[in-house]
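A further point concerns the way the authors explain their paired sequence and structure data. Nothing conveys this as quickly as seeing an actual entry. An entry of this sort, consisting of the sequence and the corresponding C-alpha cells, reads as follows:
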Amino acid sequence: MWMKLAVPVAIPLLGGCLLMPVGGDARPLIRLEAVERSAAPGTPARWSWPVAEPGERGYLFTDSLIAVRTRVNAAVVRFRLWNTGRAPITILHDPAGFDPRPVACPSAGGGLELRSRGPRGLETVVAHGSSHAEEVVPVAPSPASGAELWRPVGLLCFVFDPVQDRIALRVIVTADDARYHYTFWYRLIEAPRED
C-alpha cells in the first residue's frame, strides 16, 4: 500500500492543540470528505463518500476490496484498513524518502500530503478479514540530493493554509495481480478562531 499522508495508508510531531478546539464540545477540525479509486493514475476514477460516525469523530469507507476507518484527534490521524476481498491484499508503501525531523510550515499551497511515518519501500500483506493500522502525518516536500524528501509539519500548517483546503492520503493496494490507487481526501471543517 502506497501511503502518502505519508500512508502515500499516512502525527505526534504536530502541534498538540491543533485539531481540537478548547472546550467540552471538541471535535476534529478536518474530516474525510471523499475517496477516489482508480486502476492507475490518470485513468477515470470512481468516487465514494464515507459515512461519518456520530459526532463526526471518525469516518468509515468500504468497497469490494477494502474497508477503512479513520479518526482524527489532537495529535494524530489514525487509519485502519481491513481486507474485505476474497484474496490477500498488499499495501505498497511510498518509496520516497521520509526524514522524521520536523520542518517549519511551507509557503501557502506548498503541497502538503498525509503520509505514513513507517519505513519506506516496504510492503504490508493483509490476509482476508484481517486489518492493518497506521498513523499518518502531514508532510511537505523538500528537495534533497536530486530526489524528493518528505518531512513532517504540524497540522496547523494545513488548518491555517489559505490556499490548500484539502489534504490527500494516497494508498496503493494490489490484489489478484491488479493495482488500485486510492486517494482519501480530508477537508477542513472549520478554521480555528484566532482570538
